[in-house]
Amino acid sequence: MRTASALCQSPGVPTVLIVDDHPSFRSAARALLQAAGYDVVGEAENGASAIAAAERSRPDVVLLDVRLPDVDGFEVGRQLAAMERPPVVVLTSSHAVSSFRRRLEANPSFGFIPKSELSREALASLVS
C-alpha cells in the first residue's frame, strides 16, 4: 500500500469519491466522512460511473465497493490506477476480507476497510 505522503494529491482537506451500489451505504458513508472532515466530491453506483466521476472530480481517495453490478471493484481500481493522477483506492465490502485476501495481496496499492468498520480513524490510517 502506498504511504501517507503519496496519498493526497492536493494540500488541505482530502477529497473522496464514494462508489457503492447501495444508496443507503453511500449516504451513511458520506455523512460519516463529511463529519470527519473529508470533502466528499461525488458518488457513483457502478464501475462505469465511478471511472467517469473520478475523471471529472479527480478525488484524492476513492472508497470503492468490491462488488458492483457491472464490474468488480478490483477492475475499477486497476482502471483508476492508470489515471494520470491516480487516487488512493480503498476497497470496502460487507463480506469478510478472507473472501478476496489473495486479490488484495496481489495489488498492494489497494487498502481495505470492512463496511462495518468504516470510521475516520480507519480511513485516516490508510490515507493520512
Structure in words:
With 128 residues, the chain is an alpha/beta fold. The protein contains 5 helices and 5 strands. The protein has a 5-stranded parallel β-sheet, sandwiched between helices. Strand 3, helix 3 and strand 4 form a beta-alpha-beta unit. It starts with 14 loop residues before the first strand and ends with a helix.
What keywords describe this structure?
disordered N terminus, 128 residues, five-stranded parallel β-sheet, globular, Rossmann fold, 5 strands, 37% helix, 5 helices, alpha/beta
Quick description:
The chain has helices at residues 23-35, 47-57, 73-81, 101-106, 120-127, and strands at 15-19, 39-44, 61-65, 88-93, 110-114.
Q: Going across the biggest sheet, name each strand in turn.
A: 2-1-3-4-5
Just name the CATH architecture.
3-Layer(aba) Sandwich
Number of strands: 5
Number of discrete domains: 1
Oligomer: single chain
CATH C-level class is Alpha Beta
Ends: how far apart?
A: 12 Å
Largest sheet features: 5 strands, parallel
What's the CATH topology label?
Rossmann fold
Judging from the principal axes of the Cα atoms, what is the shape? Answer: globular
- Total helical segments: 5
- List the secondary-structure elements in sequence, H or E: EHEHEHEHEH
Cα Rg: 13 Å
CATH homologous superfamily annotation = Response regulator
- Residue share in helix: 25-40%
Strand content: 15-25%
**Which residues form runs of ≥5 with pLDDT under 50?**
1-9
The overall average pLDDT, rounded, is: 89
